[in-house]
Amino acid sequence: MSPNESRADAPEAGAAEPTAVLPETAAQLVELERLQQALEASEERAKNHWDQYLRAVAELDNVRKRAARDIEAASRYGLERLVSELLPVRDSLEQAVQSASKADVRTLVEGQAATLQLLARALEKHGVRVVDPQGEPFDPARHEAMMAQDSATAEPNSVLQVIQPGYELNGRLLRPARVIVSRAPA
Q1: What is the dihedral of CA 83, 86, 87, 88, to 10 degrees?
Q2: DSSP codes joined into one string, 168-183
Q3: What are the pLDDT tens digits along the chain (186 aa)?
Q4: How many CB atoms lie within 10 A of CB 162?
Q5: How many whole angstroms separate alpha carbon 161 and alpha carbon 37?
Q6: Are strands 128-131 and 166-169 parallel, antiparallel or unpaired?
Q7: Of 104, 106, 132, 143, which is most buried, counting CB atoms within 10 Å of its CB?
Q8: pTM value?
Q9: 128-186, what's its fold?
């Protein structure tokens, strides 16, 4: 054999043969199999959790979109009930204007009173309440004092007279009542 032939067949000095890691005992083989099964089960659970996460994210997105549509519809059509309640008031006022030249004073007053009742009922149905503080203590958060007047009969700093009633919407003040406040005589 020539030196060239022996070199080609023999492994190089610096190269190592690949070594396979084989379990040395049956117990290690069983443990390896158990770990592989546990890994597969964990991967399956992870896949299921990922699918659940994606479904939850999609559902949350759908809820957001539905809420945005509901808010838009509420702002667009929220006044629909109120307007439908106010239309009879408008109709009544329109009839009064048309018949004003033919009607007597008493009929006009009755028509105006009926129209006012229609308006009051429509506002009341939608949570509007009149603030009429006659005789109550003056409250600057709910009343606007137009003037103070001496009074020997009324409690000082109480509402003597209501010039213009105030209004609340579901407990929130829309307009304060304009009042005359009593003060002790000088």
Answers
A1: 150
A2: EETTEEEEPEEEEEEE
A3: 444 554 445 555 555 666 655 657 888 888 999 999 999 999 999 999 999 999 999 999 999 999 999 998 888 887 888 888 889 999 988 988 888 888 888 888 888 999 999 999 999 988 999 999 999 999 999 999 999 999 988 899 999 999 999 999 999 999 999 999 999 887
A4: 20
A5: 88
A6: antiparallel
A7: 143
A8: 0.58
A9: Nucleotide Exchange Factor Grpe; Chain A, domain 2 (2.30.22)
Tokens standing for residue 24 = 């040395």
Q: Which two tokens stand for residue 37?
A: 């099964």
* Residue 113: closest CA among 92, 133, 87: 92
| Residues present in the chain in total | 186
Domain borders along the chain are 25-78, 83-126, 128-186
